[in-house]
Design goal:
834 residues, alpha+beta, Beta-galactosidase, Chain A, domain 5, TIM Barrel, Immunoglobulin-like, 3 domains, 12-stranded mixed sheet, 10-stranded antiparallel sheet, 57 strands, 16% helix, 33% strand, disordered N terminus
């Protein structure tokens, strides 16, 4: 029986037999309730058995095979055609645009297929359900487009290329309207629902799980862990899932994409500031055989987290399906769509601190593991590189994870607040900056603040609460604390006092907030919250006025970059500490990919995790990883740690000083694979080649990149740094890995080897050197004292000399290659302008 469809025809030209129509005027108006709320996705996405029949896939819409491209072009029309609408078929609606063809079912509006018109390749092969699905709290049955079956109204507006679908059966507990706006290379979908009589709706899948053919996918991209992930075909062909909550450490953007054929198709939300943040559970799912999202297909899931009470309405952000040339193109489109490109620059947030931070490695000062009193800090500071970003942790009473939010006065064994202030002043005098560890959002249940709440307040008044009114208590080992609501008046007042303490009592250059960029979004039903969805909106609003204070966070996500200046965390830490990516995704099925670098690198500084020992350092993998993805270096100052090495500390400091100004806060201009296991990254004038192979060298342009090695150089050839094993500039090195840093000046060049055995080196002469002019090499100590001259010679336009780590019994910090005296002028050039 033909589905019952109502539409209104508008007189006008007909193209290709297509019917044109415009939306009905004065139709049913969906009530406007308060904005809905959202929380973690309920376990499982299974539909009730009654909706299982709503699964539509490849068989529902037989599209052209990729091999028949000429035929496909004939069937789909030329790419120059305008957007066309065709509903002549009994059971389907087609929208054809220059880049794609979308087919929907008239029964429930199910998404049947999305085809790339350029190649004729199917990008989407169906959907689980009928375009949308709403899930109630508890064990109630979901409802969605499929429940309306033959009772779907639709209308097409040719003027705006908009299809409107009305799900408005008078007896339905939930009614909805979907609009689909067709643009040349993307589709905009938007859903409005009204909960008439159903229980609270805690999630709304939109679009309902999309089916993609497994064998068609070359790669997938997910915003999981900084800087993002590229998933190989092996991930999609095995049972498993990667579904995470945005915003959090596990999803820094509401964006997913797939490489299918020669195209990248992305699914993302368009929801820029100042619109309220909309949390969502998103990712990829492949189930065991015999179930939906299995066999030939996996699912792309995108489920908004909501709290739509009976009688209330909720409207989704725009959901955009975009066809692009690459993941780079679609993540940059997400950046533009959500106005992230308009966020304040790092220079605006940091001022003069920006130049210092670009050259300064983060140095963790753990005052539990190395409890040096503040009055004795000068001895420690003098052994650290300058500049540094000093990061004192565990200085509050009780040590780590204790006393939050009461950080001052500090532990008595370390000294007084005034002595802490003096230690910070000493650090500044040596050219460094100070960033204390703080936590605003998790309050120790045994802290002075929680223990002395002013009557009649109780922990329930300050905490995030669940739907039963129970305050959220989180435990970390033996430590317990309340996740506090940013809307509770007492929380806001205490946060303001804490920030003032670090402006006046111990003036800090930057402020680090644990958990704020890592914790998954929470539903907040504290009575002070204006909306159960508004947990992170509250923190964003509370901290935005403090953006000039150089705010940094554990991990981070897109909107946080509007006011924060630094994010700390990466997939490298999760891989080293917990083996999480391999356990979740399968070994060999993933690799880090710079989605967040394209998205945010000119808005925030990126660091490894501020506490994790596994990534505090400068081993070969960390060094090449940081440079390839534009991360600043983080090291540990604890000399008693088995991981501490003085030469690696010097390496991190030297690389940060020399290379940092060329990549910190710069936009990512390119990232690609140039050879097996070799990637190329470009930030402005800096090019970085990285060897991802941890066991074998890779030959690149006369240099052998060491296992996990790299070479970084500026376009003007004035700066070069790398980790080499075998050949460097065509000269054989002594065995082992050599970290070499060369800075070429006008009259002289400086050569450092912080890590590596004594060896011969060949380096380019200073830029003022001309053929026939002599060169000399002099060794210098760390204090700037000249140790002595060493022999060298010019060969093939390069100066060769032996780099010895000690000379005349003194440790060499660098060799300076300078112009020898010019016999024609009898004027010594050594010591002249570099």
């Amino acid at each position: 029986m033909r589905p019952h469809v109502r539409f209104r025809l508008i007189a006008g030209p007909r193209r290709g037999g297509a019917t044109t129509a415009e939306p009905k005027r004065g139709g049913r108006l969906l009530g406007r309730g308060r904005r809905a709320a959202r929380c973690g996705l309920r376990g499982g996405l299974a539909l009730a058995a009654a909706l299982a029949a709503g699964v539509l896939s490849l068989a529902a819409e037989a599209g052209p095979a990729p091999a028949s491209r000429a035929l496909a072009a004939d069937l789909l029309g030329s790419a120059g055609d305008a957007v066309r609408f065709d509903d002549r078929a009994r059971d389907r609606i087609a929208i054809t645009a220059p880049a794609y063809r979308l087919v929907l079912g008239k029964r429930g509006g199910a998404l049947l297929s999305l085809v790339d018109r350029r190649s004729g390749r199917r990008l989407v092969s169906g959907s689980r359900g009928c375009l949308w699905r709403a899930d109630p709290v508890g064990e109630g049955a979901p409802t969605g487009g499929c429940a309306f079956g033959q009772r779907l109204d639709y209308a097409w507006s040719r003027a705006s290329s908009t299809l409107t679908l009305d799900y408005s059966d008078g007896a339905a507990a939930v009614v909805a309207r979907v609009t689909i706006i067709a643009r040349p290379s993307f589709l905009d979908l938007r859903l409005t629902i009204r909960n008439r009589t159903a229980p609270v709706l805690e999630s709304v899948a939109f679009p309902a799980d999309v089916l993609v053919e497994t064998r068609a996918v070359r790669a997938g991209y997910a915003p999981t862990y900084l800087p993002g992930l590229r998933l190989g075909p092996g991930f999609f062909s095995r049972p498993g899932k990667l579904v995470r909550t945005y915003p959090s450490r596990w999803a820094f953007a509401d964006y997913l994409s797939l490489d299918i054929g020669g195209r990248n198709v992305s699914l993302s939300s368009v929801n820029p500031l100042p619109s309220p943040l909309q949390p969502v559970a998103l990712g990829f799912v492949r189930r065991a055989e015999g179930r939906i999202c299995s066999g030939r297909f996996f699912c792309v899931t995108h489920s908004f987290l909501t709290w739509v009470e009976t009688g209330a309405s909720w409207r989704s952000p725009v959901v955009r399906l975009r066809l692009g040339a690459s993941a780079q193109a679609t993540i940059l489109a997400y950046r533009s769509d959500n106005r992230i490109d308009r966020y304040p620059s790092l220079a605006a947030k940091l001022g003069r601190r920006g130049d210092i931070l670009a050259r300064a490695p983060l140095v963790k000062l753990d005052l539990v593991k190395e409890p040096v009193p503040f009055r004795d800090w000068r001895s420690i500071l003098q052994r650290l590189p300058s500049p540094s970003l000093l990061h004192p942790v565990s200085f509050q009473p009780g040590g780590h994870d204790e006393s939050f939010p009461d950080f001052l006065p500090p532990q008595g064994s370390l000294g007084t607040t005034e002595e802490f202030r003096g230690a910070v002043a000493n650090a500044r005098a040596l050219g460094s900056l100070v960033m204390p560890y703080l936590n605003l959002s998790w309050w120790d249940d045994g802290s002075p603040t929680v223990g002395a709440l002013p009557p009649p307040l109780t922990p329930a008044d300050i905490a995030v609460r669940d739907e039963s009114g129970v305050p959220l208590l989180e435990r970390y080992g033996e430590h317990a604390g309340y996740v506090v609501s940013p809307y509770a008046p007492y929380v806001r007042e205490r946060v303001a006092r804490l920030l003032e303490e670090w402006r006046t009592e111990v003036p800090a250059d930057c402020l680090f907030f644990d958990q704020l960029g890592a914790r998954p979004w929470r539903r907040d039903l504290n009575p002070a919250s204006p909306d159960p969805l508004a947990y992170y909106d509250g923190w964003l609003g509370l901290l935005a006025p403090y953006a000039p204070r150089c705010l940094m966070a554990e991990d981070g996500w897109d909107r946080l970059a509007a006011s924060f200046a630094g994010f700390h965390g990466s997939v490298l830490m999760l891989a080293r500490e917990h083996d999480e990516p391999d356990l979740l995704l399968g070994a060999g099925n993933w690799e880090p990919f710079p989605l967040a670098i394209w998205l945010l690198h000119d808005k925030v500084l990126l660091y490894q995790h501020d506490l994790a020992e596994q990534t505090l350092g400068a081993d070969d993998e960390i060094v090449s990883w940081n440079l390839a993805f534009g991360f600043l270096f983080s090291v540990n100052a604890d000399e008693a740690s088995p991981r501490f090495r003085r030469d690696r500390l010097e390496l991190a400091a030297s690389l940060q000083r020399v290379l940092g100004p060329h990549y910190a806060g710069r936009r990512l201009d390119g990232y690609r694979a140039v050879a097996p296991d070799v990637t190329e990254t470009r930030f402005g004038d800096l090019l970085v080649l990285r060897n991802r192979n941890a066991e074998q060298t890779r030959r690149v342009g006369g240099n052998d990149l060491a296992p996990s090695g790299y070479v970084a150089r500026t376009d003007d050839r004035r700066v070069l740094a790398g980790a080499f094993a075998g050949l460097f500039n065509g000269v054989s090195l002594s065995p082992g890995t050599h970290h070499v840093i060369v800075e070429r000046g006008l009259q002289s060049s400086e050569v450092r080897q912080p890590v590596g055995s004594d060896t011969r080196l060949a380096v380019d002469p200073p830029t003022a050197w001309r053929a026939g002019r002599g060169l000399r090499a002099d060794a210098y100590a760390a204090d700037g004292a000249r140790i002595g001259e060493v022999p060298g010679s010019l060969r093939a336009g390069r100066f060769e000399f032996r780099y010895d780590g000690t000379l005349d019994g003194r440790r060499v910090a660098l060799y300076r290659i300078g112009l020898a005296p010019d016999p024609a002028r009898s004027v010594a050039s050594f010591g002249g302008r570099r």
